[in-house]
Design goal:
By secondary structure, the chain is α/β, with parallel strands linked by helices. The chain folds into 2 domains: 7-70 and 310-421, Aspartate Aminotransferase, domain 1 (Alpha-Beta Complex), CATH 3.90.1150; 88-291, Type I PLP-dependent aspartate aminotransferase-like (Major domain) (Aspartate Aminotransferase, domain 2, 3-Layer(aba) Sandwich), CATH 3.40.640.10. Helix content is 38%, strand content 13%. It has 12 helices and 13 strands. A 7-stranded mixed sheet has the order 4-10-9-8-7-5-6, with helices on both faces. Strands 1-2-3-13 form a 4-stranded mixed sheet. A two-stranded antiparallel ribbon has the order 11-12. Strand 7 (190-195), helix 6 and strand 8 (227-231) form a beta-alpha-beta unit. It is globular. It comes from Phenylobacterium zucineum (strain HLK1). Belongs to the class-III pyridoxal-phosphate-dependent aminotransferase family.
Amino acid sequence: MAGTGSRDRALRERAQAVIPGGMYGHQSVGLLPDDYPQFFEKGEGAHLWDVDGRRYLDFMCAYGPNLFGYAHPEIDAAFVRQLGQGDTLTGPTALMVQLAEALTGMVSHADWAIFCKNGTDATSMALTVARAHTKRRVVVRAKGAYHGAAPWCTPRPAGVIDTDRAHQIFYDYNDVGSLEAAVAQAGDDLACIFAAPFKHDAFVDQAEPDPAYARRARELCDERGALLVVDEVRAGFRLSRDCSWSRIGVQPDLSTWGKCVANGHPISVLLGSDKARAAAASVYVTGSFWYQAAPMAAALETLRLVRETDYLERMTALGERLRQGLAERAAAAGFGFRQTGPATMPLFLFDDDPDLRRGFCFSSEMLARGVYVHPWHNMFLCAAMTEADIDAALDAAEDAFAALKRQAGALPPVEKLAFLTAGAH
């Protein structure tokens, strides 16, 4: 934790008095190394500054929303212009229709859009629409997959009762036999199959979708009259300018989007095909701030940049540069260092590191050198990064591997992650 006298330390102490647990949710640093800052001051481009003035090259990108860079001038200008005209009004502006048209024009399976604020809003709507369409109850979804923080899908069970989690059957991602068995168990009550664009569970190696698995998920939904949902909240527009599964020739009926749709401005969306249009029109979903105009203006500008720039190709090239450089430096230092997931959304794990003590040490050493990485969650590149940024990260990594090698025989256990070895993850 930040030292005595730091602003971060003082804010944590104040937060303990007025915020349950001092911090909550996925942006709590409670399960990160103790030297990670909790509070930040500003972000610009690919960098952010903590409240004590330390600058970091940020490979978390706000856990995904930062696609084109913090404080992007064109996107933020669109937001501010609309803010001056009106934002939360008695009804939506014309931007809502324009944004729905833009998204349905870009995402090949989509014929309609419903806007909301968070990824959890979108995934919960997808489940509701699927149940309304099929008049059935069961959702089949992958073990360990994250689809939000509502009671039906939260990874933490406190306050959740059995009925909140009822009518769910789990399968192993990329395992066709496991998927078929789950669907068979659902029988005539199957409403939908939920799938992530790729396996991006925390604490474990990532994996691209096996085309045979994705195709079988589509076939099973068609055979059973159920809906296929691809949850794009984390990966949307980071792997493709279309739905991620379009790359393997599989189209869902519903897809959920968030995070970088407006480059960090608050908006998420459920997209769907005509098949589910009547069901989507029949359900009651709403929110006081779901119709805000300023985030829609920011989203329109973000989508223009998605369509008209080479952001994805540049990010992918930078990700490959990072991956190759890290592999070389890890090997030179004598470490088994696994890099999984797409190049634009990497995860780093060390071999022979069951309690992540090597990962924690490496991450802390990177942080001390001005590079913010995560020891057990997938990370993100953004289009504001440059080759110079990647090279700086590789220089930091070379030093971090050397520091880890010096400490290798004396690393303390990571007690805050003891639940990992107990099988709780």
